[in-house]
Design a protein that fits this description.
alpha+beta; Rossmann fold; 2 domains; 21 strands; 21% helix; ATP-binding; molybdate ion transmembrane transporter activity; ATP binding; ABC-type transporter activity
């Protein structure tokens, strides 16, 4: 199944001109700076923006072409925006069931108990909306959208209105939603960490046009990725989180790529999660140093070396299970170690961030 959109819209000296065909599985992120047209494209997909001459197709269903136009309420789309749109006079339970009750029984695939558990809100069901925190309200908004059993979920910067602490609290629930809901998601964001944590595919947008569409692994595999503009190059490793060991650390990944991470004991073991590792937090050694405080040492094989700015190099290597790990080192260090593609080295990882 795929989502195909072709549209051209000019308004107030801004032109959106897109022609894309996206596979619909997992999470697709529309990524770009503010004002590049991400939200307008999302509104066209939803049917909130009716553009003359546009063509929108979802799987084998034509949503828009010529005079044919399927309105939003017939597209079976779940929408979640920056600011929640909950009904203040209803409880959490009644807000969640608002769309559920209006969904034909034959189309109901998701139900209140499983969605409440997925989003961690069973204890909130009887609360009034005005007694919820910002993160709780956004979780309820996600739950209400899911309980309409949509065939597509559209998220328009769902975290941008939240403070940093609340954002950290809700990210794990978004991650669970992406894995467990079984609904394809298109998410608008301009935050690289949100893309790296949640996305399977990235659509890069700039000044109303799509510059590139690629998988997250492809996006992280090139030195000029727009995802690196703020904090520099980063890697995302996938693996399973193990039970608590000594000194409050937990194992992550397989034997060949095992890392030790700090993580609360109440986080369940098993399942697949992601680690974000900044390239500047990775050093390289020809031998495995034993008398050193850095705990995470991985044996990797260099794949390529790309030049960066300020006399620095980006060394791309592969772990034992084939995942990409980036290290940012000085060009002088690369020359002194005589690094080259195909060479086995040890990656010393100073800091990791468990993303979900």
């Amino acid at each position: 199944m795929s989502l195909a959109v072709r549209a051209c819209l000019t308004r107030d000296h801004f032109t959106l001109d897109v022609d894309m065909d996206l596979p619909l599985d997992g999470v697709t992120s529309l990524f770009g700076r503010s004002g590049c047209g991400k939200t307008t494209l999302l509104r066209i997909i939803a049917g909130l923006e009716r553009v003359r001459g546009a063509r929108v197709r979802f799987g084998d269903r034509l949503w828009q072409e010529g005079r044919h136009f399927v309105p939003l309420h017939h597209r079976r789309i779940g929408l979640v925006f920056q600011e929640h749109s909950l009904l203040p006079h209803l409880s959490v339970r009644d807000n969640l069931l608002y769309g559920y009750k209006r969904t034909p029984k034959s189309q109901r695939r998701l139900h209140l108990p499983e969605v409440a558990d997925m989003l961690g809100i069973p204890e909130l069901l009887e609360r009034p909306i005005d007694r919820l925190s910002g993160g709780q309200r956004q979780r309820v908004s996600l739950g209400r959208a899911l309980l309409t059993s949509p065939q597509l979920l559209l998220l328009d910067e769902p975290l941008s209105a939240l403070d940093a602490q609340t954002k950290r609290e809700i990210m794990p629930f978004l991650s669970r939603l992406a894995k467990e809901a079984g609904v394809p998601i298109v998410m608008v964001t301009h935050a690289p960490d949100e893309v790296e944590r949640l996305a399977d595919r990235v659509v890069f947008m700039h000044e109303g046009r799509i510059e590139r569409s690629e998988t997250l692994r492809e996006a992280l595999g090139r030195a000029d990725s727009p995802l690196f503009a703020d904090e520099g190059p980063a890697s995302v490793l996938e693996g399973a989180l193990g039970p608590m060991a000594d000194e409050g650390l937990r194992p992550f990944g397989t034997n060949g790529t095992r890392l030790w991470v700090a993580c609360p004991d109440d986080r369940p073991s098993g399942g697949t999660g992601r680690l974000r590792i900044l390239a500047r937090d990775v050093s390289l050694a020809l031998d495995d140093p034993q008398r050193i405080s850095i705990q995470n040492h991985l044996r990797v094989t260099i794949e390529r070396i790309d030049p960066l700015r300020d006399h620095r190099s980006l060394v791309a290597s592969r772990t034992a299970d084939g995942q990409l790990l980036l290290a940012e080192i000085t060009t002088r260090a690369a020359a002194q170690l005589n690094l080259a593609p195909g060479q086995p080295v040890y990656a010393l990882i100073k800091s990791v961030a468990l993303m979900g």
